[in-house]
Design goal:
Beta-Lactamase, 5-stranded antiparallel β-sheet, 12 strands, 20% strand, rod-shaped, disordered C terminus
Length: 382
């Protein structure tokens, strides 16, 4: 037998009543209109609200609930066992929730249940006790909210996240393979540079007494600068830039050993100053020509000393190359020089937005000052 539900309350001053449920204040306001209020709540709620007997059989469902569940006539399900209306996978969750409600506690869960007409639906379900005036649990209230859109969106996000994780894993694997391959390529390139430079220097020594020997030596020095650019880029391949101070220091050391000269480098460029590979190659070629010229004209019977200085101010870089050789002729004009090396220096200085000047060094030799714009984009000898 269905036990009618009733609620009782005591009128009075809410501020003077101890241990009073704040929700009971609504009953004071609804004195005599509780039934109409309840019906209004049921009609206005978008949730599927059901009243169950303690054994789990269905005794009431609001109209919006029948619409959500696609039930045309409540008599079709009246008295039916509520858990039977759900897929088998949800029966344990429903049984636990009803047991909690019979014990006076509320439980909430999320589960899948298609409508009466088979439309897929996900529900956020709250199961709570309905008490009589004496506190006895008389029925069970089950409110189900359609959260299909939320669950679908959540599943789509999970699928997208899984796809992204898979793509990241594939890319990481590809990057790892690429790193191994780049390391192998770098090793081969460095060996190739070293072999070419060694062959050219050997030929330069063989033909040291003729003009061809000097030209071959110049070619070896130019390839040395390209090798140093490659070496610096390999140290930090992800940046794509060369640390100028490290690059010039290593290059001057290489050129000193190759030319059997004392090349000293004085650096005043912060390590933070970097240049693109194209400009690094241009700076290297320019220094190689100036250092090579200093050694070439320094005298055959002596070991030339060359000083290289580098400094930076704002967006401009300054390079100075000095030697202790015989110095420049009084009528020296780099614009009229017929040698390829000096022409290369002039072209590179201009292409890097700067200029080259000359004079005498404190040691009595030649001095060249190159003032250029940092990170020029149109560097390239043509």
């Amino acid at each position: 037998m269905n036990t009618p539900l009733r609620s009782t309350h005591v009128k009075g001053d809410p501020d003077t009543m101890p241990d009073r449920d704040d929700n009971l204040a609504a009953l004071d306001l609804l004195d005599g209109a509780e039934q109409g209020f309840t019906l209004s709540v049921l009609d206005s709620s978008p949730d599927c609200i059901k009243l169950l007997e303690l054994d789990g059989t269905l005794s009431f469902m609001n109209s919006n609930g029948m619409c959500a569940m696609e039930i045309d006539d409540f008599d079709q399900v009246r008295g039916a066992s509520w858990p039977v209306m759900w897929p088998q996978d949800s029966h344990d969750a429903l049984a636990d929730a009803m047991a909690e409600a019979r014990s006076g506690r509320t439980q909430r869960f999320e589960a899948y249940c298609p409508t009466a007409k088979g439309t897929p639906r996900w529900w956020d379900v709250t199961v709570s006790p309905v008490r009589l005036a004496d506190g006895t649990v008389a029925r069970i209230l089950a409110a189900s909210r359609d959260v299909t859109d939320i669950v679908t969106a959540r599943e789509q996000l999970r699928e997208q996240a899984a796809l992204l994780r898979a793509e990241v894993a594939l890319k990481n694997a590809a990057l790892a393979r690429q790193k191994v391959l780049l390391g192998e390529i770098d090793h081969r390139v460095k060996n190739s540079f070293a072999s070419v430079i060694a062959l050219l220097r050997m030929q330069a020594r063989i033909h040291a007494d003729v003009e061809a020997g000097a030209l071959i030596g110049d070619a070896a020095n130019r390839i040395t600068t390209l090798s140093r650019v490659h070496e610096q880029l390999h140290l930090d391949p992800e940046s794509g830039f060369v640390t100028l101070a490290h690059y010039v220091a290593a290059l001057t050391q290489d050129l000193g050993q190759a030319l059997n000269a004392q090349v000293e480098f004085a650096n005043d460029v912060p390590n933070a100053v970097r240049v693109n590979p194209s400009q690094a190659a241009a700076i290297g070629q320019l220094l190689a020509e100036l250092i090579g010229n200093a050694v070439k004209h320094g005298g055959k019977d002596r070991r030339t000393t060359v000083w290289v200085e580098a400094s930076a101010q704002g967006e401009r870089l300054r390079l100075r190359v000095m030697d202790d050789g015989p110095g420049l002729p009084a009528d020296f004009d780099p614009d009229d020089a017929s040698g390829l090396g000096m022409q290369i220096c002039q072209i590179y200085a201009q292409q890097m937005g700067g200029s080259m000047t000359h004079g005498a060094s404190p040691a009595g030799g030649a001095a060249f000052d190159v003032d250029i714009l940092r990170d020029a984009t149109s560097v390239g000898f043509t």
